[in-house]
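Problem: given the chain below (104 residues), write out its structure.
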Amino acid sequence: MNGRIEKLHEFLKATPNDCFLNHALALEYVKQGDEANARRYFENNLNNDAGYVATYYHLGKLLERIGEQNTAISIYEKGMEQAKAAKDMHSYSELQAAHEDLVD
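Solution.
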């Protein structure tokens, strides 16, 4: 396990539902090609805070890479709903573009 992952796990012991830490840990697992752990932490984020918009894009991309296009489409759609509710139009645009790439 790399040092960054170890540090993030240490931080998560104190605050296991911290969305930023879970997201950062998932991204570290993505860098290592560990899709299973990355997915687990991305999904943990959405279960703890469905409004953490950044997770939708990265989870969707992970799902695309592992061949789960229909699930990725659903994640992008949920993310667009959350981004719109948060008035985060930048994230909405990114999610929409990723969504359109799959459905067109």
